[in-house]
Amino acid sequence: MRLVSEGPSPRLNAMCGIVGYVGQRSSSEVLMSGLARLEYRGYDSAGVAIVSDSGSLVSHKRAGKLGVLAEDLANSPLESGSTGIAHTRWATHGAPTDANAHPHLADDGKLALIHNGIIENFHELKEQLVASGETFSSDTDSEVAAVLLGIAYRESRDLTQAMVNVVGRLEGAFTLLIVHEDAPGVVVGARRNSPLVIGVGEGENFLGSDVAAFVAYTHKALALGQDQIVTITKDSIDVMSFEGEVVHPPEFTIDWDASAADKGGWSSFMAKEISEEPEAVANTLRGRLSPEGEVTIPELDSLDVSLIDRVIFIACGTAAYAAMLGAYAMEKWSGIPVTVELSHEFRYRDPVVGAGTLVVSVSQSGETMDTLMAVRYANELGAQTLAICNTQGATIPRESDATLYTHAGPEVAVASTKAFLSQTIAVYLLGLYLGGHRGFVSAELAAQTAQDLHNLPGQIQEMVSTGPRIKELAGWMADTRSVLYLGRHVGYPVALEGALKLKELAYIHAEGFAAGELKHGPIALIEPGQIVFVMVPSPRDPSSLHNKVVSNIQEIRARGARVIAIAEKGDAAVLPYADEVIAIPPASPFMEPLLSVVPLHIFGMELAAAKGLDIDQPRNLAKSVTVE
Ligand code: AGP
After folding, report:
1. In angstroms, rounded to a whole number, what is the distance separating the alpha carbons of residues 109 and 59?
2. Active site residues
3. Which of 243, 313, 412, 548 allows an S-S link to 40, with CB 3.0 to 4.6 Å?
4. Domain total for the chain?
5. Domain boundary pick from 218, 237, 261
């Protein structure tokens, strides 16, 4: 189903934070702390609605950051109540205003609604409602849903039935939560193409756009599926399909705690998450790879490996570069043809896909709409689908035949760092797994690779400690306007990843190239002072790549480039031609890229810091792009 909006785009409510609560606590405290843990999703307005203990619906909403709302609520607190919903909205069309913030009210202010997504047919619904005398206080698509639900509740006097009666009339992507002052102790939610998970407590229950909303209160969660409605009270959780059939959602345990989602004293989430890169790699490997190189991943048992004659990766951004990097090793270890496609390109192509094709999505959030729609397309085409994902209970894993979780822990900073390394390792494990099943990996190669992988966290830690030196470099370059990144073979995806980090963090034009492309055009960009990072392959590598890249460095140096080489310790061939060398410990060709990417992550962060920019929430970006 293609989400195509007619007429002026509705005020989109993409990438929002959603929290719902019923229990014994002050819902205001639970709701605001939940929104705080969802801040990383990117937003520009926030609001809460509570069914108070005195039986009235009270609400407040403000444009701006959560602090603006919190200050208002501190100065004039809402009446207390143990039932409530809360929302952070990330408007992608039109300035965020108090009026357009959520919650939206209806039924004479007795019903409150919050919404994440896009209601595609809101124009015709609104015209019908206006024609029947309804009035609106905003021009959002969300308010149309609120008014419809207010009318439905007046007719049914049952909040769940009201939701059942309305969701069938809505088209597009939406997560909706509603409360009504005549239904204290009840929150009803519905989801289509947009995330919603359930937190299971003792005498209390939660709803959230992801588990971060309630992980401080419970580690027990239920994954709500597509086109499902959930009704929570403090002692019950009832789930049904949009058609009213009872559903029993799968339960899962959140494997990280609230402190993991805190900054823990770091200057930014990104700094914290770079420091976690060694541990993230160790966690992805844990329990899955024996010293002999035998891969054990029970989650993959649901795949029919014997059918697989081709692998297509689908992903966006950093996740796509991790797939590109992993694909080099996977093809070599498994003997299966592997290609990598951007999700939003795959989806509109006519790929030759069938039962023999394994389509592997790579997504940290598991909610990227471009990738979710591509997964659905792959399922329609009859492929087997595997999700490599970092977020339990996310939508993409639920719509895939199998899931390989990366277990990197929450990644809060918008710019992805530790997830890149974990995703690459997950692809390596998949390559060894498939190679092992096909008898394509020799015992010695498997054992050697296992040893290389188990050595990796320690070597990554060594690269994390280059931070101070990288910070100095960044300080010198704070006013640079353009940086190029060159890499060959497995160095090429690293060049793309390094460039993306600089674009999204320091807002600087940066471009990653395959070094071999230089002479086919890009070398025209080289002028005196042009900064170029070069990923240099190991001189121990029997291929001629090392010498070719050293020649590339000579070519750009001859034209005045300032070269920062990321090269193996002791690589004397590079020294005469590089202005700066960042040394990495000797490692095998497939492991070195996971070392050379670390200084590039640090460089992006430090250059943004040198420019005084928001490191964790760069402008125009959100952590999870849940619209196409
Ligand atoms: C990476 O730093 C960016 N934030 C972005 O490219 C991201 O990797 C991409 O949007 C994919 O996100 P996902 O892994 O959650 O699907």
Report:
1. 9
2. 16, 623
3. 412
4. 3
5. 261
Burial category of 8 from C-beta neighbours within 10 Å (exposed 0-12, middle 13-18, buried 19 and up)? exposed
Q: Does 3 fall in a domain?
A: no
Judge if the upstream peptide bond of residue 589 is cis by omega within 30 degrees of 0.
no
Q: What average pLDDT does the chain have?
A: 92
494 and 404 in a single domain? The answer is no
Q: Any idea what the CATH number is for the domain that residue 488 is in?
A: 3.40.50.10490
Residue 333 forms part of a structural domain: yes
Residues 277, 170, single domain; the answer is: no
At 569-579, the pLDDT tens digits run: 999 999 999 99
434 shares a domain with 358: yes
Do 127 and 144 contact (CB within 8 A), yes or no? Answer: no
Does ligand 1 lie within 6 Å of residue 530's CB atom?
A: no
pLDDT digits (tens, 9 = 90+) for 11-62: 333 467 899 999 999 999 999 999 998 886 668 899 999 999 999 999 999 9
Instruction: Express each pLDDT in 520-530 by its tens digit.
Output: 999 999 999 99
CB distance 372 to ligand 1 below 6 Å: no
Cβ of 504 less than 6 Å from ligand 1 = yes
Which residues, 6+ apart, have CB-to-CB distance to 412 below 8 Å?
40, 261, 269, 273, 616, 623
Mutation choice for ligand 1 from 270, 343, 347, 416, CB with most ligand atoms inside 8 A: 416
CA of 390 to the centre of ligand 1 (A): 12
- Burial grade of 286 (CB within 10 A; 0-12, 13-18, 19 or more): exposed
Closest ligand 1 atom to 420 CA: 8
Tell me: the pLDDT tens digits for 282-302?
Answer: 999 999 999 999 999 999 999
Q: What's the pTM value of the predicted model, to 2 decimals?
A: 0.77
Q: Indicate whether 22 and 102 sit together in one domain.
A: yes
Q: Which domain holds residue 388?
A: 263-455
Among 365, 389, 392, 494, the mutation site with the greatest number of ligand 1 atoms within 8 A of its Cβ is: 365
478 and 442 belong to one structural domain: no
